[in-house]
Amino acid sequence: MTAMPKFTLSRRKFLVSTAAVGGGLALGLRLPFGPEVARAADGSPEITVWVAINPDNTTIIRAVRAEMGQGTITGLAQLIAEELDCDWNKVTIEYPTPGQSVARKRAWGEFSTGGSRGVRQSHEYVRKGGAAARMMLVQAAANEWKVPASECTAANSVITHKASGRKATYGKVAEAAARLDQPKDVPLKDPKTWKIAGKPLKRLDTAKKVNGTMEYGMDLKMPGMLNAAVKDCPVFGGKVKSFDAARISGMRGVKKVVQVGDSGVAVIADTWWNAKTALEQLPVVWDEGPNAKVSSADIAEVLKEGLDAEQAFVGNKAGGDVKAALAGAAKKVEAVYSYPYQNHACMEPMNATVRWTADRCEMWGPTQNGEGAFAQVLEASGLPADKVDVHNVMLGGGFGRRGTYPNDYVTQAVLIGKPIPGTAVKMIWSREEDMAHGRYHPVMQCKLSGGLDASGNLTGLHMRLSGQSILAAVRPEVVQAQKGRDPLTFQGVFESGEHSLTYTVPNLLVDHAMRNPHVPPGFWRGVNINQNAVFIESFMDELAEAGGQDPLEFRRKLLGNSPRALGVLNAVAEKIGWSKPAPAGVYRGLAQMKAFDSFVAAACEISVKDGNKVKVHRIVAATDPGYAVNPAQIERQVAGSFVYGLSALFFQECTVKDGRIEQTNFHNYNSMRIAQMPKVETILMPTGGPVWGGIGEPTICVAAPAVLNAYAKATGKRIRSVPLKNHGIELV
Amino acid sequence: MRLNINGKNHEVDVDPTTPLLWVIREQVGLTGTKYGCGVAQCGACTVHLNGLPVRSCSVPVSVAGGAKITTIEGLSSGKTLHKVQKAWLDHDVPQCGYCQSGMIMAVAALLKTNPKPTDADIDAAITNICRCGTFQQVREAIHMAAKATA
Questions:
Q1: pLDDT level of residue B150 (50, 70, 90 thresholds)
Q2: Which domains does chain B have, with CATH numbers?
């Protein structure tokens, strides 16, 4: 195991590829040198799959990763445009569908947009797509001029033959270029020479977001469209026993009441408001199933047992014998931490619009994984791959919630739309439904045992995780391949790979007692680094304190083998002024982590009034992602990470009572407001190298431990469970 | 009943208890105003009612009859962007953008009554939720808009 799973073995993916083969599709396959040229929606010839050029010289860049605010589409377009040498002011974006990609042997590769992979795992092939297109455009011009291509240059969508002074726009030679064979050897530019990539350019999609014209899934309009409100059994694992449709059939706008799978009911009406109003009046009897009595306390008990269980999966083991090291330590420190269920709470609740016809089923809606959604439509509809498609739209937030999960909103929408072919049905979840049927940040407890020598140096560390595996529920084949272990559980503290532990500890054991309650888990922005960073980075401060050492110095000593981690940590320490005293009444804390192949650190300054009112004044955050494709957007992702991360730390917990989630809306699942927003100072320090790191997620995880460490300094109280509202602590 | 939205009259046939938000979105067809919570917590549905910001998810449409309703689509006059929209564009504020219609409407209302708000004024007046976390850019853009003359 050298890297975290990339889910290449997923059942869904398999389904997609077999569907493609089984369907015997050869639609749109481009024949090199042949007369057929693939075209963009507006008819522009496709040069490579990533680039089509309109005769008016507009560059149409293709994107298949999902845009949910993280800026990935702008970043990918910058990379393509950079290699293409096109006019950035004439770039537009087009989204090929998964159906088109499947029909062309997955010409656009991976659609899934999670794990901060958008840029870092497609940068090479999209850049090559841009560079190859440029080479073909230049070749086409050279052919026309009967000069060697090597004598021609390209810039700003114009090809120039210097010796003769001839010029041609990309638009002019695009048809000829599209008929050329793609070059095999496609060299890429040295990032040091970048003019479009690497620059703090504006996003491509802002104009529509300031005047209300950006269309989200929620906003789709189709002729004759109906709307559906849905309610799934509030107890996970429960089923519909019966419902009395007659009771609401006469209500305003109601067209149809349908059962959705075995666990849901939906009302289809002219408007969503009428559907929702009727659904609230629909009498439903549930079979709540075996989980009907489960509570948070029951779940906590199960996890607690795992803290000392014999059997556990090993995620990281180094040095000799951790037990012996702890037994022989001059000082032993032990602490138990816990992290709750949390909902993503995307601003736009889950929704999907489906239209069935006699032999086709199409879905329009927000998804982080077009191909995953495609496979779900395929499965739920039972239709072959050439009769199904998915059309992605702008996501009103994703954060991992709009990945592909079993029996989720896409499947529901397909089932709801089936009884009324020819009519598009837009299914929208209420916020309450969204809170009740999340794919929650998993629960985890952690017992940490550390040993110090007489000088306060760390000699041994045992980190025992006990709690829920996401992959066991969502990608069981990955867990099976690991003989029951979920490697993702160890994000940030793993033995190797993109989420490896940065510290070198003489005797180390990180292991996981897997305990899987009935609440469905999901990938929640940052995923398992959130709790692992709280656990290990809080405990590092506990160890430092027990050994009478400064938390920064204590960490530095353990980071000798991780110069990039040391780099970001030193950067935040210097900028926050760690070596100088903080202003009166102000206390500092820091944290660092490696995740998604990026190194991140944060240092914060807080004050505490009346022992419980916390003001976070300032956060300095450093990121080393290897390469920075758009520094301005990275800065925004970093600042936003503290809103997501601190909201989670202070306010957010989904509690379980009678088998269901108790929180229903933002009044009991709060999110930070502008008044609570600290000033975030971002240090972007890419150090290059062979590996590109992610941006959207890593920084979130250092928010909480940095503040927890500062809080301990301010009050002398170490808080070991999230959220802080449970301790009577407020964010002001 | 008759609604005046962005200077245009619309006849709608709805239950008078229907929230203004859903009348704007589903009857009038203006979808720039967003549904986020339905309980006046998040502010994604903010519109102006006679110039004042309201959370339209929690205003029954019956209250809005006869009032002058402005939505994000009607904030700018003609092709000239409202100064808040312009600041948002210049400063690249939105991330996913879903909450931004409401955010912009709330800020536009603030600047109308308080053209040069302090940070404390902003903290008190702007209580919209943004899950992407654009607050730092929102604050900076409010100050930019306050400096703009238009």
A1: low
A2: 2-74 (3.10.20.30), 83-147 (1.10.150.120)
